Automatic annotation (TrEMBL):
Name of the featured protein: Cobalamin biosynthesis protein CbiG
Highest taxon in the source lineage: Bacteria
Location of the CobE/GbiG C-terminal domain: 243-364
Classification via SUPFAM superfamilies: CbiG N-terminal domain-like, CobE/GbiG C-terminal domain-like
Gene Ontology BP annotations: cobalamin biosynthetic process
UniProt cross-references to InterPro entries, sorted A to Z: CbiG_hydrolase (IPR052553), CbiG_N (IPR021744), CobE/GbiG_C (IPR002750), CobE/GbiG_C_sf (IPR036518), GbiG_N_sf (IPR038029)
Pfam family membership, one: CbiG_C
Domain Cobalamin synthesis G N-terminal, chain residue ranges per copy: 55-135
Length: 368
């Protein structure tokens, strides 16, 4: 998860630095220019701003999580014009500057705000404030499970229907298309979460018997989903998100080394390499045998992007650049920029930021 933290005061900035150190992934801190000293302005991962509303508007579409250390009212007024959909908006978390309470404000389940709140609260000993009804009542919501398994809910209107059913103690059945890649993985993960699930052939997924009309169902599939008008009112569908592996490597790196890096990267997010849907890299590497042979071995497409397009995404997502790589091939970030190029306007949530392995860098991105 790519996160940004916003601070208006010196005390808030000190708390932000604690958050920055506590996360496995990189957090960028945005601080009011009135607070930063000249020495602090040069620190890596710290940026100054003049107007909060302007910097938040720029950050809102490019980060997966936004953490604010300030009054909740300021945050609400700042993000209100930017809100689009619970399926697309980033996680938003608010802390008081003394670090006593952390509030999961927006995108608690699908965006991951509840998990981010708990993680940051543990780091500073704060009390998490989570108000989603299913969490308050210690119920496991289908959309929370969808986020955990990187599944895309559809249609959005049924999320509330299924969550309400869970709150009311209604039985929810889980059906997984057995032809779906990794169907057994999803079944095992659901059962570990206390959700019995059955594997069905595609034609049986929507076959709800008359005696089961009042039951609620979650269907996990990616094919043959009906039109909304034909979907029973008690059914929510989940489909797998594409996992993009952005890859950069030194010239002449063997395929075995590239494969090993992708392997390790996937294990770091609780998956294996078979979950990768597409490999993405720079056009400079379009003839790199190690990347091409790896894609062939995985039976996955590989997409190469021109430097000009990748530079646009480096600027858009404010990606960190390596001066050495930039001098060598003309751009300073390959794996993250290529992954963002691959998802295009649909956007993505970073599962693993640029990670260095032997002669290889890998970034993993879930398509939104």
């Amino acid at each position: 998860m790519r996160t940004a933290c916003f601070a208006l005061t010196k005390k808030a900035y000190e708390l932000a630095k604690t958050f920055q150190l506590s996360l496995d992934s990189t957090m960028t801190i945005y601080v009011s220019e009135k607070v930063l000293t000249k020495e602090q302005e040069s620190l890596e991962g710290t940026r100054s701003f003049v107007k909060l509303s302007q910097v938040v508007a720029e950050a809102f579409p490019i980060y997966d999580g936004l953490v604010f250390i300030m009054a909740t009212g300021i945050v609400v007024r700042t993000i209100a014009p930017l809100l689009e959909s619970k399926l697309k908006d980033p996680a938003v978390v608010v802390f008081d500057e003394r670090g006593q309470h952390g509030i999961s404000l927006l995108s608690g389940h699908i965006g991951g705000a509840n998990v981010l709140t708990q993680l940051l609260c543990q780091a500073v000993g704060a009390a998490p404030v989570i108000t989603t009804a299913t969490d308050v009542n210690k119920c496991l919501a289908p959309d929370a499970l969808a986020a955990r398994l990187s599944l895309r809910p559809w249609p959005k209107v049924r999320i509330g229907t299924l969550n309400s059913a869970v709150l009311e103690g209604q039985k929810v059945t889980w059906r997984i298309d057995k032809t779906l890649p990794h169907s057994v993985f999803y079944k095992r993960m659901l059962e570990q979460s206390g959700q019995p699930a059955e594997l069905c052939i595609t034609s049986q997924l929507m076959n709800i018997q008359p005696e089961d009309q009042q039951l609620y169902a979650v269907i996990v599939s990616e094919a043959n989903l009906p039109e909304l008008s034909e979907l029973p009112t008690n059914v929510l569908c989940l489909s797998p998100r594409r996992l993009i592996a952005g890859v950069g490597c030194r010239r002449g790196t063997p395929a075995a080394v590239v494969m090993s890096a992708i392997d390790t990267a996937c294990r770091m997010i609780g998956r294996d390499r078979s979950f990768v849907d597409v490999i993405a890299s720079t056009a400079v590497k379009r003839h790199e045998a190690g990347i091409l042979f790896t894609a062939d071995s995985l039976a996955r497409p590989v997409r190469f992007y021109e430097n000009a397009e990748m530079e646009q995404n480096i600027a858009k997502y404010q990606l960190e650049e390596s001066s050495f790589v930039k001098e060598t091939i003309g751009i300073g970030n390959v794996c993250e920029a290529a992954a963002y190029c691959c998802v295009g306007e649909r956007g993505g949530r970073m599962a693993l930021r640029k990670t260095k392995f032997e002669k290889v860098t890998v970034a993993l991105l879930w398509e939104k």
